[in-house]
Amino acid sequence: MVTVSCDVCKKKIDNPITDRTLFYYDKHLVCESCKDSFEFNIRTDVRAVNPFIMDRYRKLMRDSLDKAVQKGRA
Length: 74
Ligand SMILES: [Zn+2]
What we know:
By secondary structure, this protein is an alpha+beta fold. The protein has one domain. The protein has helices spanning about 30-50, 55-70; strands at about 5, 10-15, 20-25, 30. The strands form two sheets. It has a two-stranded antiparallel ribbon with strand order 1-2. The protein has a two-stranded antiparallel sheet with strand order 3-4. The longest helix has 18 residues, at about 55-70. Zinc ion binds near residues 11, 31, 33 and 34.
C-alpha cells in the first residue's frame, strides 16, 4: 500500500483518493483539511473580483500554497 502525506501539515493521508481525500496543486500534494483552509483564506480575494477568473484563482491558490508549505500549515 502506498503511503502519502500532505506537503503542508505532513500528516499521513489514510485511504488516499485523488480529488476526494487528497488534491494536487502543481507539484504539491495537499490533504482535504489544508485544501479547505486555502479556499477559506483566499475566498475574500476571489470574491473581490467579478467576474470570476480561473487563472487568477489558480495563482492565488499557488501563492497561498507556497507560503503554507514554507510555514508548515495552511
Ligand atoms: Zn494537510
